[in-house]
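[Automated response] Your request has been received and processed.

Submitted sequence:
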Amino acid sequence: MSIKIVVIDDENQIRRMLRIALASEGYDVTEAENGTQGLAAIVRQQPDLVVLDLGLPDMEGHQVLQELRSWSTVPVVVLSVRNQDREKVRALDAGAQDYVTKPFSVVELLARVRVCLRDHIKPEQLPVIDDGKLCIDLMKRQVTVNQREVVLTPKEYAVLSMLAASPNCVITQTQLLNQIWGPSHTTDTHYLRIVISHLRQKLGDDPTEPTYVRTESGVGYRLSVTC
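Generated structure:
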């Protein structure tokens, strides 16, 4: 099962940027534009982490955090333009794990997300694919073939991690494109074909008869492993 993150922010551009950045790291992202939608998404998705903006249109982010902490211990990374120490202390005292001030570096945010997840997710919650030749460790974000590390681009890793989260199951092209490239790219299958081709090369797959990344004609792709 892939790591699920709920992003609660009323700014479309921020949500889109976060979805693209987080999806490129292999995370399963759900967006919400206000506190009510955000709490509902958390109940529905049971995420591993929440990214929460404090300035929401229907309720204060602090209210969302207070409500959330009454029934969930899911880690929360707060985003806010408020850079006063008292706001940071208030959010942390209310149960947030981290506080990031806007504007922020995407690289820094991703690093903070990784730290929160590392501290709160048990390794056994994430699958390790190991068939003796190919090893995919989603917790360590490491891929090896014959014990040699494979260097992947963010898009290549995002695709492979989605497939590895449900080994031997078909993931549709639409699911992959929507999650990794975004809803506006669900028909851009050529993007996906290029990444799949590169993945097969790096994993040592025969492009005519691939062992690992298999095409399900007209539907999507499947990571075929025995482990």
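Summary generated for your ticket: The chain has two domains: 4-120, 127-223. The chain has eight helices and twelve strands.
If you did not submit this request, please reply to this message.
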